[in-house]
Amino acid sequence: MTELATLYAHHIAERQRTTAEALEATGHGALVISSGKVYTHFADDQDAPFHPTPHFAHWCPLPGPHHLLVVQPGHRPRLIRYAPEDFWYEQAPLGDPFWAAAFEVEEAGSVEEAWSRLGALGNAAYIGNETDRACEAGLDLNPDLLTAHLNWHRTAKSDYEVCCIDEATVIAARGHKAARAAFLAGATELEIHHAYVVAAGIVDHEMPYGSIVALNEKGATLHYEGKRTSVRNGAVLLIDAGAQVRGYASDITRTLVAPHCDSRFAALVAGMERIELELCDLVKPALPYGDLHHQGHLRIAALLQESGLLKVGPEEAVEKGLSRPFFPHGLGHHLGIQVHDVAGRQGAPDGTPTPPPPQHPFLRTTRTIDEGQVFTVEPGLYFIPMLLRPFRENEHKGAFDWALIDALTPCGGIRIEDNLLVTATGHRNLTRPHLPD
To answer: What is the pLDDT of residues 309-320, one digit of tens each?
Structure first.
């Protein structure tokens, strides 16, 4: 805990520095961030699982809604903790968490009291979803320029943040190993999911995103949400699942084959494993992420040619867009408090956009790779009928082996994903030490 407190102290010092810089750049004198209000389903009394305002979580791992953080350059940040007396829901005492010493902590028994404690703040900005109260307090609501500056700084992870992601990786790796064993034992999608959460020691709403547990053809649905109980003894499992610690996520995908899987598809999985590791090896500062994505297409196109799925070379396949129906998504995304973390398409602190090229519209990261960034590398190869259908009749139809495509379509797809920290000279793979295959 002492080491964690030290890492956190450095993290907070950097937050104070970058926030002061952002406030000066945007002409604000102070910043108020709320942890946020709970979303209640329409015409119901049931609430959605609470997710804090990400910028609040960047500062403080205190769970729960309605807390307020007040940041003023040159002052110790104030944390107004919403702590009502309540017999409906558990209200855990604050105790003595490792992070508390960073703040002037006050407690408020109601939401109204929390906001009244703000006092007079000159030219203050607000970030969060409690905009009605922030408007009444005279705060500048979610200013785009200030948010862009803060987002920009979130892409460089502190040692504290990397520590949280590392811990989340250890938890997720336990889950993936249990899911693998369940799959090889012939379990259903729901049973595989249950094996994951039990081994990870979490319940569903504690996951950073809903798990993807796809047997066979369902692996070709990129964000498959089902958990079928009717399918057992799958030939292929695509599992995309993570964990979170103090608000920071891990995001890991593996594609596994059973002994009875079509050997041609199993060879593709082995080829994609090799390609994913090769792409990871390329990661270093000053490399544009788009170039890494392009390398992914070239290598996947080469694998498609080697396997006989495509009859043209990789350069021609990529130039003519023949690899895109097999690999339709971006190679990866920034990772942190949000699974798809912010500023991936931001070219400068002021929010100048760097949109993806037209041929790769779903590329989430167009930044140049820099030290301190944490992002995913997740190449994919899928058999998606709706994306392949146009090529069956256009001028490129002769470049595909349609009989082989049809034979492998029931196997679904392949995605392999690791989380990488960019270092001064290269990178550190955060995933493989805990989940080597």
So the answer is: 999 999 999 999
